[in-house]
Specification:
Mean pLDDT: 77
CATH architecture of one domain: Up-down Bundle
Oligomer: single chain
CATH class of one domain: Mainly Alpha
Largest sheet: none
Radius of gyration: 57 Å
Strand content: under 5%
Number of strands: 0
Low-confidence stretches: 117-124, 251-261
Distance between the termini: 165 Å
Helix content: over 70%
Length: 261
């Protein structure tokens, strides 16, 4: 059982949180030693700095709780709590020193990165200028101006090329937009034509069905007429069948009125 639990549950809880943070700081700095990239080192160092701030806050809370319990505890207990607090502060200070060391190293790397091989270039230029004659200084100044003018011209060229590319891109986007509008209009026209064609097919279907009925009726009428004609020709004396004009057989006994006169 944790001896601090017998003194104060809150004190034991704070001590546990501080122990966890100090362990995380130890692991974090071990991990930091293996990181070579300065940007990643900076991010890792920021995380460790936040943990150190939290640890410092908890140590203050621990000290406040110890002072609140100081009158109730015996001398030996107070001495043990004071030594524990000092041990926490000492370990935290060691991590703060490591943090400062790593921060300095990272800053030195960044300075070397920005200055690079040109470090001390201005001093060399001063020494070089002091050894030049007036004419050499003028010539050197003219060359620097020419180089500056050339750099400006290159910059202008790049700007003009960028503007041209932007103009061409805008024109291409406009053409594509117009093409898309035409495609949408054509799709609308096709949709309308399909609806119209579908309606026409339905009307033709209904008309064709009507024509079929009419043709069937005409066929039945023709068949009936042919049947009557056949029956009339086969049985001309059949009085049940009415004569069809133009097909009645000639009357043999018909006499002219002039024969009786």
């Amino acid at each position: 059982m944790d001896p601090l639990s017998a003194i104060s549950e809150e004190l034991a809880e704070i001590d546990g949180q501080i122990t966890d943070i100090l362990r995380a700081l130890s692991n974090g700095f071990q991990k930091l030693e293996k990181i070579k990239d300065s940007n990643r080192q900076s991010r890792q160092l920021e995380e460790l700095t936040d943990k150190m701030r939290e640890c410092k806050r908890l140590i203050k809370e621990f000290d406040k709780e110890v002072k609140a319990l100081e009158g109730r505890n015996d001398r030996e207990t107070n001495r043990m709590l004071s030594e524990k607090k000092q041990s926490m502060i000492k370990e935290l200070n060691s991590y703060v020193a490591l943090k400062k060391q790593y921060a300095t190293n990272i800053e030195n790397k960044r300075i070397e990165l920005f200055e690079g091989p040109n470090a001390g270039f201005e001093e060399d230029n001063v020494l070089l200028a002091s050894s030049m004659t007036n004419q050499q200084l003028v010539d050197h100044g003219n060359r620097m101006m020419d180089e500056t003018d050339q750099a400006i011209e290159r910059g202008k060229k790049i700007v003009h090329e960028t503007i041209d590319v932007g103009t061409e891109t805008a024109a291409a986007l406009k053409a594509q937009t117009e093409q898309m509008s035409r495609i949408v209009d054509e799709l609308d026209s096709i949709h309308f034509s399909l609806k119209k064609a579908s309606k026409l097919v339905k009307e033709l279907g209904r008309q064709f069905a009507t024509d079929k009925c009419i043709m069937a009726l005409l066929f039945l009428i023709v068949v009936g007429v042919i049947a009557i004609i056949i029956v009339k020709l086969v049985h001309p004396e059949n009085k049940d069948i009415r004569d069809i004009p133009g097909l009645a057989p000639p009357v043999m006994n018909r006499k002219l009125l002039s024969s009786y006169s």
